[in-house]
Design brief:
With about 350 residues, this protein is of the alpha/beta class. It has 9 helices and 11 strands. The chain has 2 domains: about 190 residues, Rossmann fold (3-Layer(aba) Sandwich), CATH 3.40.50.150; about 130 residues, DNA Methylase, Chain A, domain 2. α1 links the parallel β1 and β2. Keywords: Methyltransferase, Plasmid, Restriction system, S-adenosyl-L-methionine, Transferase.
């Protein structure tokens, strides 16, 4: 049996792709950013994409489904963003997710957000969000997880909210991390791309002469904020978090670690080439397959789509976990119904 899922704040569909790999059907997606529409539609042919703002979408026009998934905008909670949390318009979009959830009442939901929402300054807002999920009729389970613990070659901490409708009485447990020696490194996922990356034209314009789709990187200077930390991880390590900005992309692991010269100031070592990871390298680290093509007129839009996505392999782990709990619950219900029938007989 396949479960049908609706995706909100879908972006390029990293979360959707992970759920599809776990054998869920994504029957509906909503994404209001026009720079993403072509990428989503070209790579998710079977899913209807609603391009309206979620604010303008009546719940009656969202299909009935078994689950709702999504990553409401995270900039207002982010360390690198405004950090205004729920006071920011983008933070309030979390409640649009809850609105649809409350009115459609699917069996489960999954929502993802940045670790910054766990900061003490956001405690009252987070408590409010948890209460909203409960009032919507769901048993809530949430936890801070790192994608590197689940086979993703990247340090990427995210808060994951999982909920099951209260009448299902599901006692959910988050998936256990994999063994450390089974975790992927940068060498495992991007080493074969080492020789053929191409700089973007005029720093950010797409390069049409690529052997590998999207294997181009942004050029240009680095901000003082960027140079305040080492931005290089070696081949044998996990990547730093893939950010939603080309200017913040990590440096390729073929270069040596940056050299610290004073407090909050690093420099590149002389005699070595330092370049940003390409769009395709970032996509690989996030788990997108090479036949998943990103469409953009500015290379930074490619980095943004990828950095805002949920890592695909991590999404599949979460989807597999939810599926397992749904199957267990269905089995319990089946045994209960059988017991009732026997008593009635």
């Amino acid at each position: 049996m396949k479960f049908n899922v609706c995706s909100l704040f879908s972006g390029a569909g990293g979360l959707d792709l992970g759920f599809k790999k776990a054998n869920f059907n994504i029957i509906y997606a909503n994404e209001n950013d026009k720079d993403i529409w072509t990428t989503y539609e070209k790579n998710h042919h079977e899913t209807f994409l609603d391009k309206r703002s979620i604010i303008d979408v009546p719940s009656s026009e969202v299909p009935f489904c078994d689950g709702i998934i999504g990553g409401p905008p995270c900039q207002s909670w982010s360390e690198g963003g405004s950090r205004r949390g729920i006071e920011d318009h983008r933070g309030q979009l979390f409640f649009e997710f809850v609105r649809i959830l409350k009115e459609k009442q699917p069996k489960f939901f999954l929502a993802e957000n940045v670790s910054g929402m766990l900061q003490p300054k956001h405690k009252s807002a987070l408590d409010n969000i948890k209460k909203e999920f409960s009032d919507a009729g769901y048993d809530l389970f949430f936890k801070l997880l790192n994608a590197s613990d689940y086979g993703v070659a990247q340090d990427r901490e995210r808060v994951i909210f999982v909920g099951f409708r209260k009448d299902l009485r599901v006692s959910y447990s988050f998936p256990r991390p994999i063994d450390f020696n089974k975790r992927k490194t940068l060498k495992d996922v991007i080493f074969d791309l080492n020789e053929n990356a191409t700089p973007a034209f005029d720093k950010v314009k797409p390069n049409n002469n690529l052997l590998v789709k999207n294997h181009e990187y942004m050029t240009g200077g680095f901000s003082s904020i960027y140079m305040s930390r080492n931005r290089v991880r070696s081949w044998q390590e996990f990547s730093y978090t893939i950010q939603a900005s080309g200017r913040q992309a990590p440096i390729h692991p073929g270069s040596p670690k940056m050299e610290k010269v004073s407090t909050d100031k690093f420099i590149f070592k002389d005699g070595f080439e330092y370049r940003r990871l390409s769009v395709r390298e970032c996509a690989r680290i996030q788990g997108f397959p090479d036949d998943f093509e990103f469409f953009y007129k500015n290379v930074n839009a490619g980095y943004k789509m990828i950095g805002n996505a949920v890592a695909v392999d991590f999404a599949k782990v979460m989807a597999d976990s939810i599926l397992q709990h749904l199957h267990v619950r269905a089995l319990v219900q089946e045994k209960s119904d059988l017991w009732v029938k026997k008593r009635a007989a």
